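Hello again, I could really use a second opinion on something today. Take your time with it, there's no hurry, and the full record follows here:

___
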Amino acid sequence: GTWKTADCKDNEGHPSCTPCKEGQEYTEEKNYLDYCRRCDFCDEEHGLEVEKNCTRTQNTKCRCKANFFCNGSSCDLCEPCITCEHGIIEKCTPTSNTKCKGKESGSNLPWLLCLLVIPIILAIIWVISKSLHKNKEELEEYLKTILKTNFPRLFYFSDVDLSKYITSIAELMTLNQVKEFVRKNGMKEPKMDEIKNNHPQDTAEQKVQLLRNWYQHHGKKGAYDALIKSLPKDIAEKVQDMVQKDITSNDENADFKSENERQS
C-alpha cells in the first residue's frame, strides 16, 4: 500500500515510503516502486460492475453485470448474453454465453448458388458481348462490374491501407479481441500496459490505439490479410463488406471522372 519516496540512508535502514491514495492507487506486495499502480475502472457501458472496491493494498475487482458474460481469465469487457430463438440448451452464466438450440441451416447453400449462377451470368455476358460487338477492354470492365455487384465476397484485397478503417474496425471488436489479436501479432505487454495507462477509463480509445500501434509496426504489406485471418467470421465479413463498399465506391467515382474527361 505504499511507494518509495527516498532510498535507504544506511545499510541497515529502510527506504522512505508514502501511502498510496485510497480508492485511486494501490500496491499489493512489498516493492521498491517509485509510484503506485492506478486502480482499474469497471466500465458499466461494457457490462462491468464493481465486486470489490480498490484499496491501498488491492486493485479494484470487477465482475460482469446480470445478463453479461466473459469467458476469459482476465475480463476488461463483458459481452451481452444472446437471446435464443429456438430454445435454450444452457443458460448464460458470468463466464459463459447462452447455448441455444440450433436450426438446421444449409451452410453450403451460398457456394452451391454461386456454382449454379456464375456460369449463367458468364453465358449471358458472352451472348451480350457477341450481340453488341463489345471490344475486349469494354467486355472485361463489364464482367468485373457484374461480378463485383453480385459476388462481392469473391473479391479479396491483399494490401489495403487500413489506417482509414482503424476506428471502424475497433468499434466492431471487443477489447479482449483486440488485445488477443495484437498480442498474437507481436505487441509486447509493456506497450499494451502503456496504452492502457494512457487511457485508463476509455476502453474505446484503448482499442483504437492498440490497433493503430500494431498497424504502424506491421506496415501495409500483408496487414489486411493478417487481420482478416485472425478475426471471428462475423467480424471479418463486416470488415470485408466495409472495405469492398469503399473501394467499389472509389472505383465508380474514378470511372465517372474518366468518362467525363473522355467526353470533354
